[in-house]
Structures are given as C-alpha cells and as structure tokens.
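User: Good morning. I'm curious how 2-acetamido-2-deoxy-beta-D-glucopyranose would be positioned relative to this chain. Could you predict the structure with it bound?
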Amino acid sequence: MPPPSLFLAPLLAFAFASATTTAPLPTARTLVDGARGHGHRLKSKTFLSPPLSLRPGSVSNKWYTDVDFPRGHLALKSFNGELVDARGAPVPLHETYLHHWLVEPYYVHAARGGGGSDGERLPRANSGVCKGSLGQYFGLGSETRRTATWVPDPYGVEIGGGGDAPAGYEERWSLNVHAIDTRGAADKPGCTECRCDLYNVTVDDDEGYAGGLRCCYDQARCRVGADFVDGEARELFLRYTVMWVDWSDAAAAVVPVRIYILDVTDTALLDGKPDPDCKVEYTVEECSSENRAKNDCVDVKVTKEVLPHGGNIVFAVGHQHAGGIGTSLHGQDGRLLCSSTPIYGDGEEAGNEAGYVVGMSTCYPEPGAAKVRGGEALTVLSNYTGERRRTGVMGHFYLLVADDDEQQQAAPNNKQPSAPCFSLFPASWCVPAWLLGNLQ
Ligand SMILES: *[C@@H]1O[C@H](CO)[C@@H](O)[C@H](O)[C@H]1NC(C)=O
Ligand SMILES: *[C@@H]1O[C@H](CO)[C@@H](O)[C@H](O)[C@H]1NC(C)=O
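Assistant: Good morning! Here's the predicted structure, ligand included:
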C-alpha cells in the first residue's frame, strides 16, 4: 500500500480536470473536502443565463423560467455565479452592480408541456422562515465572487428526488437576476441603494419611502451624466457553476440539509404576530451628532426568529450591502452560532472593487457545535455604519441545517465495508470507504 499522499495527488489533478474550462477554480475547501469525501464523484457544470440587456443607468430585474440546471436526483454541493459580458469577461461591480441573483426550483405539470402560464407552475420554496419571500435555494448579491457556497461533507441539498413532487408534476429551475448598470451614473452608491429620487420614482402608498427595491424595478433608470443618456445597451449574462454528487452514489452517503433564510426585518415574533413579516430590506439612518461625537455611529438592528425544525447548523453566511460591518446569529441563551462579516474590495478589477462588498465570511461549525432546538428563538443581528443614510440595505442569514435524527442515521446507512486502517506516525489513518470502492 503506498502512503496516502500518493492517492490524493492524482485525485486532486482529477478534480481540476473534471471542471469545465470556464468554471472558477475550486476553492481550497472544495479540494480538501472533495478529496476526503467523494473525490471524482463530484460533478461540475457551468451554464449561462439568458442575456440581460443594460444601457447606462438601466435596471434589469427579471425571472427566467426553466433555466439550465443539472437534472436528476442529486445532492447540490455548491453554486457560484458572476456577471460576464458577451465575450465571457467578468464585469466589475462599478460598471454593473449585481444587486442579487436567486435560484429557486418550481414544479410544472409534465403533460401540459411545462411551458404554460403562471397558473400551471407550483412554487417550491426552501424550508422557511419567511413566507412568500426569500424562498430561494441559493442567492447572493455583489459578494458573489468571494463567498463560499460549498456545502460541507457529508451534507447536500437534495433535489430532483421526485418523491415530493405533486402527482404529474416535474421539477424545473427559475433564476432571478437583478442588475443595475451604473456606467456614467450621477451617483453610483445612490443608484445601487435604489434611491427613489435618482430613479425619478415616487411610491404613492408609502410616503416616507426614500429608496429600495420598489424604486429600482425592471426597466427603471437611474440618473446618468449627459454623455451617457444615449449610451448603447450591452448584453450581459450570469455565468453559474453548479457542483453536485449523484444521489444514487451510495458511497457519497449524503445527509440532506434544510435551507432557512432569516431576515432581521422580520419583527413578527417581537410584535407577537403569528405570521412572519419579512420586509427583506430596510433603511439605515445617519447617526445623530451626539452619537457621532461619542464615536458611536453603528446602526444595530436586532430581531428574533424561530426555525420550523431544530437541528445542526452545518453552514451559515450573512448577507449585507455596502456599509455593512457584520452580522451575527445567536441562540436563545445568547451563545454565538455564527458571525459573518463583509469583505470589501480595494481595487478596480472584478472581485476586488473598492467600496463594494465583494464577499462575506462564512461559518462551517464542527458537527454538533451549532445545535438549535426546535422552537428556540434565535437572535439575528445586523450592524451598519451610520456615517450616512443608506436605503435598501439588507440583513439576512442563510443557513443549512441537518435534522438531528437524519444525522444519527447517516452512519448505519453507509453500506461500505469497514475500512482497513494503518498506524502512520504521527497519526493513524484509514482508507476512506469511497477509495476502497474505487480499488475494487
Ligand atoms: C427625472 O425628472 C426630471 C424632472 O422631471 C427630468 O428632467 C429628468 O430627465 C428625469 N430623469 C430621468 C432619468 O428620467
Ligand atoms: C454590532 O455592534 C455592536 C455595538 O457596537 C457590537 O457590540 C457588536 O459586537 C457588533 N456585532 C457585529 C457582529 O458586528
């Protein structure tokens, strides 16, 4: 038996080779996890969204149905996307601000062709917590290039199982991309914060509404300098790479996780209301001169929310816009479950744009370290700098949670023969089950 390092080297090479040429390089975590868990069983495919047509100042916010996506019963392991131009070159955020993209499955009636009207589509949202909003399976914004979406082993987001589709229905995928072209914009931060005055929009039924999604809707246009008013439209695409393992691959022994999205604007529990009330976005006011004098210019927003099922958090990441300085999630007793902080760029190039949130730090708690009881009231916190007013900001938490019972079943479900072990100084080492399978 050669030492383990000789096994891993060809596997790592294979992991690189199996990715399509346009896919971003797998992160270190992907490689380590992939080599440990399922090696070449990890599959990867890169797709392009339909084109978005954007001229200087304009907004595109469309839902595309039946988009390209891996088919079959599988476990999703990651979803990475970025905006590219027609030549495939990454587009920096200071040219086109990626407000958000969302990916969500839905069901269509197979016999009626699936093309049909909205009435023939059945939504299939994630497991909670907001009802009617934030139902996506994956979704990020400007931070997309530098935020890990890797679902740690042995977990996966189960899709295409068929078992939970209503009779006669099939699964499809929808994609929403909200992008704002800020080339030549009179006020780039103002356009990305969807300030209504810059879009010449007034929201009649909400007098105090100064900015947010209701002012940067599809086809709205933000104010641009005279040289850009007649600027030509260009076509952009969301290029996205999905990684997965096939569910039928017993050696992968995937444990399914539930997806929950928490929102700091949901005050239903605090207000004693029965139904969640996720407003998705909020406004940060400029701090008072007294607070500024005291050097205390942080806008702290806090709420409480309950997960529909308890379990073990295996992945968590916050979502904030520019001005954000940190999010955190706490248990009922105050214990920290995850703290996720924005990463700001400091250059010009795509992925490192100065003044923009180009990534969010993520949490991968050790198994059992971030356990949530059923009915436990979690505290969601979102901090922004209050140095000036900002509209349309967000404070969300995206969680992957494994049910307690399923976790306990994972070991007996693994039908692999027991692995031979070696005592290799300084640590003992066992042949992983998947590798044993490959050798037979
Ligand atoms: C906004 O309204 C002002 C005044 O009515 C007008 O001059 C300007 O062209 C409008 N801007 C846009 C982007 O529509
Ligand atoms: C949020 O701000 C408060 C007050 O400054 C601070 O105590 C807390 O640690 C901050 N939390 C995060 C996650 O940034």
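DSSP finds eight helices and 26 strands in the chain. The chain has two domains: 1-185+224-256, 257-402.
Let me know if you'd like a different ligand tried.
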